[in-house]
Amino acid sequence: MSEPCPGTPLESFRVLLLTTDQMDYLWLSQLLARDSSIRWELSWVNAVSASQEQLHRESYDIIVWDVLFHQDDSLTFLRFLSRQHQQTPVIALSADVSPQFVRSLFQAGAHDCLTRRHLGNEEFLRALSHAVFRQRQVQQRHPAGPGIGAVNRKLFHEQLQQAILRAERKQERVGLLFINIDEFRRINSSLGYRAGDELICQVAARLQGLLRRSDNLIRIGGDEFAIILEKIPHNLSLVRVAQKVQNAFAEPFTLSQQQVSLTVSMGLATYPDNGVSADLLLRSANQAMFEAKFEHGNSYRFYNQKMNAEVNRQLALETDFRQALRSDQLILHYQPKVDVRTNRIVGMEALVRWQHPHLGLLGPGHFIGLAEKTGMVIPMGYWVIQRACADMEELARLGYEDLDCSVNLSFRQFFDKKLSETLQRIIANAQINTRRLEFELTESAMMFDREYTQSCLSQLHSIGIRFALDDFGTGYSSFSHLQRFPISTLKIDKSFIDNVTTNADDAILVRGIISLAHSLHMTVVAEGVETAEQYEFLRSHQCDQVQGYYFSPGVTLEAFVELLKKQQRSIEAESKDQKERF
Ligand code: C2E
Ligand code: MG
Ligand code: MG
């Protein structure tokens, strides 16, 4: 292999190796490391089940596939692989190189077939380079990939079906965006079909540029495209893509120095709400597209009216929430935490509220999801901690400096790479005792990027801040989190407390969580305690603290101070009573 010119950055390609054989991985990683002209980034997957997930999440320039990887039906697997990842060449490694078998590999979509037995290192590197550079040439000729230029309704149908099957298995949602270019016939008849084709290629390239690698763009008609979006958490994510498409068409296209402006009409539909099969889903999206046509130019419609109304409501709320952040419409409520042994308030949890100018006081259920989706939870989170610190200062000034204050952190706040630094700056500017501050996180925060979360938590822990695991028992509960992260408090989710006195299983579970937490030297807080019976159960099983409407809901700072004063008065009355008795 030739040496690159000094100073020229190395080309880099991502290789996925699909084999069950660890020796293949060792051999290939050593071989690729030897190539001084190209940087090969090798990933290895050793199980069919994991390969799906990996290919969905990451994109690769080449796949090296051991024919024995799928032991039952290797050709079907190869067919699936090459269809799903049309833009990624697959090189097969096979012991059987009989002409008949090799032909069947090519027919099933393999780019090349090599045999380990006669394979020299040089030869293998040459085969890899040939595959990736050849693919690049194809892509340059058809910017959006070979499948996009040509109408391919059959492929579209198959891929939509596959996406629906995957979603059905994992109980996820699939979004379908049906795009029709308005009055494309006019272009064809005025500029000619050649120009029309050229324009379609430009449209395809522009659309492809908007999408994630896992989103699937296919041309399904002369002037129609479809985008299949998998794992969409919400209708709004489909709207975001539709908005990106709208923006993409805001700029004109250039055809032999002539500017051509295009508009599109889009129909949006989701599996399973608007169709449980590929046919039904397509029909819904198609119908929605026709409705969008009535609005003239770059518009989109959902299949059903209710969805349209809901999405419009969400979009309006999003605009309002941006405004709320700027114009001080957020407030904090505090819910007391009561020590079970002394029956006294020992701390509080800060809970954010939005004083909406028209809709009144809204709880986080109305806007946290939206704030997380849009990233606005990051500035909101900083506002919350700033406000909570200021309120802690105020409480200390009133003589309540020994209260512990908990603040919720959303997993999405860990997307911010300056999280720990900014939090430390805010906290340092406040005159508070950091040992009194606690952050509540859910396990999703720890699942997102363990290393980053771990480093944030340990930096904050080093200045005295404590952490609680919120909503314990819901979602993916893993005890390993409890040991790996500096967590000192465990909060049992309200859903277990609800039935703790009526359901034997919940009672066993709650007792188990309390004793587990104590064996790990953690404090246990029960959330959502609403009755005297629940409180009594928790007290008799040594739960440390409780929080719930039985004592108080979240209240304004002023009302919280009133609760503290009331408690103070009753403590004083009690001690006076005791003195008089002795
Ligand atoms: P969480 O942290 O688990 O907070 C406890 C929720 O349970 C609060 O709801 C609280 O009002 C409610 N609750 C407490 N005791 C009872 C009870 O006895 N009965 C019933 N029915 N409910 C009770 P809220 O205020 O609506 O907050 C919901 C969630 O929103 C919180 O759950 C937390 O995950 C999130 N959240 C609240 N404030 C913030 C914030 O400042 N930042 C972030 N990122 N999330 C927040
Ligand atoms: Mg909480
Ligand atoms: Mg909770």
Topology:
Elements: E1 11-18, H1 22-34, E2 38-45, H2 48-57, E3 62-66, H3 74-84, E4 90-93, H4 99-107, E5 112-114, H5 121-141, H6 146-149, H7 153-170, E6 174-181, H8 184-191, H9 193-210, E7 216-221, E8 224-229, H10 235-248, E9 253-255, E10 258-260, E11 264-271, H11 278-293, E12 299-302, H12 305-326, E13 330-339, E14 344-356, E15 360-362, H13 368-374, H14 377-397, E16 404-408, H15 419-429, E17 437-441, H16 443-448, H17 450-462, E18 466-472, H18 479-484, E19 489-492, H19 494-498, H20 504-519, E20 523-526, H21 532-540, E21 545-546, H22 557-581
Parallel strand pairs: 1-2, 1-3, 3-4, 4-5, 11-12, 14-16, 16-17, 17-18, 18-19, 19-20, 20-21
Antiparallel strand pairs: 6-8, 6-11, 7-8, 9-10, 13-14, 13-21, 14-15
Helix pairs in contact: 8-9, 14-15, 15-17
Task: Walk me through this protein's architecture.
- With 582 residues, the chain is of the alpha/beta class.
- The protein folds into 3 domains: 131 residues, Response regulator (Rossmann fold), CATH 3.40.50; 158 residues, Reverse transcriptase/Diguanylate cyclase domain (Alpha-Beta Plaits, 2-Layer Sandwich), CATH 3.30.70.270; 257 residues, EAL domain (TIM Barrel, Alpha-Beta Barrel), CATH 3.20.20.
- Helices cover 49% and strands 20% of the residues.
- It is globular.
- The structure holds ligand C2E and magnesium ion (MG) (2 copies).
